[in-house]
Structures are given as structure tokens and as C-alpha cells.
């Protein structure tokens, strides 16, 4: 039989080969979160419509995706692939609207962490398809996630409302403004669930990365088409409310959201899922995003409580781990990476490798 030492050496060399990809994923995540903070500052300072801003970012994004992927070339796409991708475009458009509204009302920290609410689909998969022994673990993970979101809504991640604040005298009105409540958190939480749902649909349509990229170009294009009438209606309302329509423009906010927040992050997340087996709704992904959020909160000098944010992130990470895990106790089999974030997927296992 083979000794365990070569296996450990193989794992070490594999981790070393994946180091450049991990660095690339961290850089792309940082750029994406930077674009979120730029978008939040632009929307909060100018009062521009969220739907108009997102639509203006989706138009060049869809054009670039079409030029890069050329879905009309190569093997013809089937109707069983096209129709779900177009439907996924409608879900994507609704996701962008809710996420933008949540970002503007709740701030970047709450909006970014609420994206991981899609892990609740792991609880649904356990109830519908999973084993009985895993249901209570996933329910416990769901409770932990809800507790983390509740603490976030109460302002634990802000210096002015955190119970771990070192400030003695705080303005009572400012405290009230930072405490939102769970009603305001519903919008970004729904956006996170829709984000997870659109990823599940994309994986169900195709597991091949090349075909998935072609279909994603169709999804973003259809999302732009779905968002077009809503954006035009928003523009008409804005033009009626003011005689002279003067929409401020920020090149960095638009370019960063388009290039980093929509285009680059898709390719890097697809690479991380395929090569690093790091899906979006996972504690590893949350850890990377949490580090980037801490840096950006300090750079932008936001109202930020490091201790409160770390506590909320740890509770959320534990909840995600329990809600999306398959079976951590099995050691006699190698499990195939869960390509659906533990959501609505079958538990696929690989037999032990021959020795």
C-alpha cells in the first residue's frame, strides 16, 4: 500500500500550484468590493437612481460579454439551454435592482454580507433531498445566519451602535440612524437568495465552463433587456419631477462597477469554482471578502467597528458552514466538490482511490 507521505507531498505541491490562482482571486475580490464602495459613495452623494445606474453599467457589460464569448459561433445552443438562460436573465435583473436598493439603504457592509444569505437554499435542499441526520445541522446553521444578520441590522458593525464600542459619549440620534431593523435587511437578503438561485440555474444548464460563459453572455444581455423598460420609466419619472434633467457622472464609479463588479468577478469566480473548488456561498469566500471589507472600511473612513464586524462574520461563517456542509464526519470516501453550494444538489461521492 502507498504510504501517506507521498499523498501529503502531492497535496503540498497542489496547494503551491494553486497559490497564483488564490492571489488572483483575492485581488479580483478586492477590486470588486472597491467598486461597491465607489458605487455606494456615488449613489449616496448624488442621489442618482439605482436602476438607471445599474442599467448604464449592464449595457457595456453585455456588449463586452457578447464580444468575448460570441455565443452565436461554435456549436449551436439548444432551446433547453437558451430558455433557462433567458429566464435567468430576468432573475438577474431583479437581483441587481434589489441589491442596488439594499446597498443604498443599508450600506456596503450589510449589503455585501447579505449576499451570503443564498446559503439558506442549503437548508431547503436538506429538507427536500437531504438525509434526516443533516436537517437539524442545517437548521442550526440557518439560525446562526439569521442571528448574524440581526446583529448587523442592529449596527454591531458600526462604531456608533456596536455594543463593543470604546466611545463613552455617543449621539443618540446617530445611534438611531445606524440601527435599521430586520425589515430594512429584507431587500438585500432577498437579493442574496436570488443571486444564489441564478448561480444554481446556470450550473444546472451546463457544467462545462466554456458553455457556461457563452450562456452567461446571453443571461446578462437578457437581464439588460428586462431592465430597459424599468430604467426608461425611472428616467421619465425623473424628467417629470425636475424641469432640467442633470444627471451627475462619475467615470470611476461606472467603469469600476462594469469592469470589476460585473465582468472580472464572473471570470475569476468561475476560475475559483473550477480550479480552487471555492464556491461563492462558502466560509473561505467569506473570509476573503471580510478581509477586503475591513481594508475598504478603513480606507474610506466609514463608521466601522472591527470587533463587531468580526463577531458577525464568524457567526455568519459558522452558519454557512453548517447550512452548506454535506457530511464532515465521513473520512473513508473522497467527496466531489459541491458545485451547487450545497444547494438543490445531489450528494455525489467518489470511491476511494486504488492503492
From TrEMBL:
This protein's record includes keyword Transmembrane: yes
Localization, UniProt: Membrane
Give the originating organism.
Citrus clementina
Keywords for this protein: Membrane, Transmembrane, Transmembrane helix
- Indicate what this protein is called per its UniProt record: EamA domain-containing protein
Membrane topology per record: Multi-pass membrane protein
Q: Decide whether keyword Cell cycle is in the record.
A: no
> Which positions, given as ranges, span the membrane?
46-68, 80-99, 111-129, 141-158, 178-197, 217-237, 249-270, 306-324
Amino acid at each position: 500500500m502507498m504510504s501517506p507521505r507521498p499523498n501529503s507531498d502531492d497535496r503540498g505541491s497542489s496547494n503551491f500550484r494553486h497559490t497564483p490562482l488564490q492571489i488572483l482571486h483575492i485581488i479580483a475580490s478586492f477590486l470588486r468590493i472597491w467598486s461597491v464602495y465607489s458605487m455606494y459613495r456615488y449613489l449616496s452623494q448624488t442621489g442618482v437612481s439605482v436602476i438607471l445606474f445599474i442599467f448604464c453599467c449592464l449595457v457595456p457589460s453585455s456588449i463586452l460579454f457578447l464580444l468575448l464569448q460570441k455565443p452565436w459561433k461554435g456549436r449551436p445552443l439548444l432551446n433547453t439551454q437558451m430558455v433557462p438562460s433567458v429566464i435567468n436573465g430576468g432573475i438577474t435583473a431583479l437581483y441587481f435592482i434589489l441589491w442596488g436598493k439594499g446597498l443604498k439603504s443599508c450600506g456596503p457592509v450589510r449589503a455585501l454580507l447579505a449576499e451570503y444569505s443564498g446559503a439558506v437554499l442549503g437548508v431547503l435542499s436538506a429538507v427536500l433531498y437531504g438525509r434526516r441526520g443533516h436537517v437539524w445541522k442545517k437548521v442550526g446553521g440557518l439560525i446562526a445566519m439569521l442571528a448574524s444578520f440581526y446583529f448587523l441590522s442592529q449596527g454591531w458593525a458600526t462604531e456608533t451602535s456596536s455594543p463593543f464600542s470604546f466611545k463613552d459619549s455617543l449621539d443618540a440620534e446617530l445611534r438611531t440612524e445606524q440601527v435599521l431593523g430586520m425589515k430594512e435587511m429584507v431587500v438585500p437578503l432577498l437579493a442574496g437568495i436570488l443571486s444564489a438561485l441564478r448561480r444554481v440555474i446556470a450550473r444546472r444548464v451546463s457544467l462545462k465552463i466554456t458553455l457556461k460563459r457563452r450562456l452567461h453572455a446571453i443571461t446578462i444581455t437578457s437581464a439588460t433587456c428586462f431592465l430597459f423598460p424599468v430604467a426608461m420609466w425611472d428616467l421619465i419619472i425623473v424628467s417629470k419631477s425636475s424641469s432640467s434633467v442633470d444627471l451627475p457622472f462619475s467615470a470611476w464609479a461606472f467603469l469600476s462597477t462594469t469592469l470589476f463588479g460585473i465582468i472580472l468577478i464572473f471570470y475569476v469566480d468561475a476560475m475559483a469554482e473550477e480550479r480552487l473548488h471555492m464556491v461563492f456561498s462558502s466560509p473561505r469566500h467569506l473570509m476573503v471578502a471580510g478581509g477586503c471589507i475591513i481594508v475598504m472600511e478603513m480606507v474610506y473612513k466609514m463608521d466601522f467597528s472591527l470587533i463587531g464586524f468580526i463577531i458577525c462574520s464568524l457567526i455568519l461563517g459558522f452558519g454557512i458552514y453548517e447550512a452548506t456542509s454535506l457530511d464532515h464526519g465521513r473520512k473513508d470516501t473522497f467527496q466531489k466538490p459541491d458545485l451547487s453550494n450545497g444547494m438543490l444538489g445531489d450528494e455525489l461521492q467518489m470511491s476511494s482511490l486504488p492503492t
